[in-house]
Write a structure and sequence with these properties.
By secondary structure, the chain is α/β, with parallel strands linked by helices. The chain has 2 domains: 1-99 and 268-357, Isopropylmalate Dehydrogenase (3-Layer(aba) Sandwich), CATH 3.40.718.10; 114-252, Isopropylmalate Dehydrogenase (3-Layer(aba) Sandwich), CATH 3.40.718.10. It is 41% helix and 20% strand.
Length: 357
C-alpha cells in the first residue's frame, strides 16, 4: 500500500467545516484504491495568531516540509487584517516551497446552473503565476500619518518566472484542446506587461501545436462572463489569475465548488491544495458550507501524488451527487455540509466497480 503524509490546516470559518468533509471523501476513495494517508492536523489559524502573535510556529515551514502534501481549508476572520493571515501563512508556504503554479480548473457541474444563457459546457483551466508579479514584497510607505503619506508597491516579473508558468500552461494546453490564452494589459502597463507578452511568445515558439492568443485583461474578463465555453487554458499573472479564477468559478455556478492546487511541478517540495472560496465568516457555523471545493481539491491532491484513477473516481462521485440534486444552498439546494459529504462517501462506494478491477 502506498502511504503519504499529509499536513492538514483547516484554518478559520468554514474551513473548519469543509475540511472534515474533504478528509472523509478522500479517505473513502483511498480505502477503495488501497492508498494510505497519514493526516497530521495543525491548529494554525487566527486563534493561534491571537495566542502567539503569528499564524504558524517559527519552525512551521520546516514542519510542513516533512510532508508529501498540504491540505488547506481557509484562513481569515473579521478583526484580523488579511495581510496578517495571508502573509503569515498562505503566501510564505507558496514561496518557500516554490509552488509557482496555481492551478484552477473550472467546469460545468451536473445539475448546477451557470450564468450562461445557453447550454454550452464550460471546461477550462486557469494557470496562475503564483510566486511573483503583482504580489511582491517590494515597496513601502513614506510620510506615515501625514497628509502627503504615500504607498509604493512594485510588481516584479522575471524571465525565469514568466517562462516557467508559460511552459507549464503550454504543456497543459497540448494535453487538452491546444488553445492557450494569455492575459495581458500591455496597452496600459508599459513595462511589465509587454515583458510578459514577449516571454510568453518566446516560450510558446517551442510548442507549435499550441495556438496562442493574447487578450487584454478587461476584454478577457468580459468575454469570460459572456462566452466561457470558448476558453481552454488561460495563463495569467498572479493578480490577473486570482481575479479571473474567482470570476470563472462564479460563472460556472459558485466559487464554493471551485478547487485549486499550489504546485511545485518539480516535486522537490510539497504542493498545497485548497478550495477557492475563503473562510466565509457570514455562513460559518451554520452547517451549510459547500464542501465540493475542498473535496475537489482533495481529488487534485491525489492526482498530483500519482493516483490518477482514484482522483477520477472521487470527481465522478461528487459529480454524481450533484446530478442527483444533493446540493448546498449556494448551488440552489437545501442540503447541509454533512448531507453532501455522506452522499459523496456513498457514491464512492457505489461507483467503486467502475474504477477498481
Amino acid at each position: 500500500m502506498n502511504r503519504h503524509s499529509i499536513a492538514v490546516i483547516a484554518g478559520d470559518g468554514i474551513g473548519q467545516e469543509v475540511m472534515p468533509a474533504g478528509m472523509a471523501a478522500v479517505d473513502a476513495v483511498c480505502a477503495v484504491h488501497q492508498i494510505g494517508l497519514d493526516w497530521h492536523e495543525l491548529d494554525w489559524n487566527s486563534d493561534y495568531y491571537r495566542a502567539h502573535g503569528r499564524m504558524m510556529p517559527v519552525d512551521g515551514l520546516d514542519i510542513l516540509g516533512e510532508h508529501d502534501a498540504i491540505f488547506l481549508g481557509a484562513v481569515g476572520v473579521p478583526g484580523i487584517p488579511d495581510v496578517e493571515t495571508l502573509w503569515g501563512l498562505l503566501i510564505p508556504i507558496r514561496r518557500h516551497f516554490e509552488q509557482y503554479i496555481n492551478l484552477r480548473p473550472v467546469k460545468s457541474l451536473p445539475g448546477v446552473p451557470t450564468s450562461l444563457r445557453g447550454n454550452q459546457p464550460i471546461d477550462l483551466v486557469i494557470v496562475r503565476e503564483n510566486n511573483e508579479g503583482e504580489y511582491s514584497e517590494v515597496g513601502g510607505r513614506i510620510y506615515r500619518g501625514l497628509p502627503e503619506e504615500a504607498a509604493i508597491q512594485e510588481a516584479v516579473f522575471t524571465r525565469h518566472g514568466v517562462a516557467r508558468v508559460a511552459r507549464f500552461a503550454a504543456e497543459l494546453a497540448g494535453q487538452r484542446r491546444g488553445h492557450l490564452t494569455s492575459a495581458t494589459k500591455s496597452n496600459g502597463i508599459v513595462h511589465t506587461m509587454p515583458f510578459w507578452d514577449e516571454v510568453v511568445r518566446a516560450t510558446l515558439a517551442d510548442y507549435p501545436g499550441v495556438e496562442l492568443r493574447s487578450e487584454l485583461i478587461d476584454a478577457l474578463a468580459a468575454s469570460l462572463v459572456l462566452h466561457p465555453e470558448r476558453y481552454d487554458v488561460i495563463v495569467a499573472s498572479n493578480l490577473f489569475g486570482d481575479i479571473l479564477s474567482d470570476l470563472a468559478g462564479a460563472v460556472a455556478g459558485s466559487i464554493g465548488a471551485a478547487p485549486s492546487g499550489n504546485l511545485d511541478p518539480t516535486g522537490r517540495h510539497p504542493s498545497m491544495f485548497e478550495p477557492v472560496h475563503g473562510s466565509a465568516p457570514d455562513i460559518a457555523g451554520q452547517g451549510i458550507a459547500n464542501p465540493i471545493g475542498q473535496i475537489w481539491s482533495g481529488a487534485m491532491m491525489l492526482e498530483t501524488l500519482g493516483h490518477t484513477r482514484a482522483a477520477a473516481h472521487l470527481q465522478s462521485s461528487f459529480e454524481s451527487v450533484l446530478a442527483d440534486g444533493v446540493r448546498t444552498p449556494d448551488l440552489g439546494g437545501q442540503a447541509t455540509t454533512e448531507q453532501v459529504t455522506q452522499a459523496v462517501v456513498a457514491a464512492v462506494a457505489a461507483l467503486a466497480d467502475q474504477y477498481v478491477g
